[in-house]
Amino acid sequence: MNKTSSVQEFTFDDMKKISRTKMGKSLPIELYRAIRLIGMYQGLPMKGKGTTVTVGRKIGESLPVHSLEELLDLFRDLKIGDPQIVLEEEHKIHVAVKDCFCEGLPEMEGSMVCDLEGAIMEGALNKIIDKRVYVREIKCNVNGDEHCEYEIRF
Ligand SMILES: [Zn+2]
To answer: Where are the transmembrane segments (predicted)?
Structure first.
């Protein structure tokens, strides 16, 4: 048994402890999409706003990353998407996410569906920088944009 502390809370490290034999380590992306879009975006009040912020920040705080670079690497490793810094100013950074999990979904103009992933960034960066950081989704494939993009403000 993988009991690491007396406090019964899962850590991100626990998430990597996978001992099932036949089914392996991966789940298909349609399951992630179903949870995100059918369950959260469509299933929760206000398209999940509020809940995604709470859930995303909590996940972000749990990530074992210590810099923006490490965070973007982890986004790549987890196959959420391929993030790249496209604008860097004193109080503002823009991160474009190519090959986002939402790429290929039907376009719905006016819809931005990757807010949870932005909230994950926000939670992680708040912990790393120890200063209030705000992350906002400003572009999304589903909206018809060329990629998904986040504005990070410090
Ligand atoms: Zn997206």
So the answer is: none
Give the burial string for 53-62 (b: 16+ CB within 10 Å, else e).
bebbbebbbb
Q: pTM to 2 decimals?
A: 0.92
The pLDDT value recorded for residue 1 is 53
Give the Å distance between the CA of 12 and the centre of ligand 1: 23
Is 20 inside any structural domain?
no
Q: Residue 8 Cα, ligand 1 centroid: separation in angstroms?
A: 33
**Number of independent structural domains in the chain:** 1
Domain that holds residue 72: 27-153
53-104 residue pLDDT tens? 999 999 999 999 999 999 999 999 999 999 999 999 999 999 999 999 999 9
Ligand 1 centroid to residue 58 C-alpha, Å: 20
Residue 19 lies in a domain: no
CA of 25 to the centre of ligand 1 (A): 23
Residue 147 within a domain: yes
Distance 60 CA to ligand 1 centre (A): 17
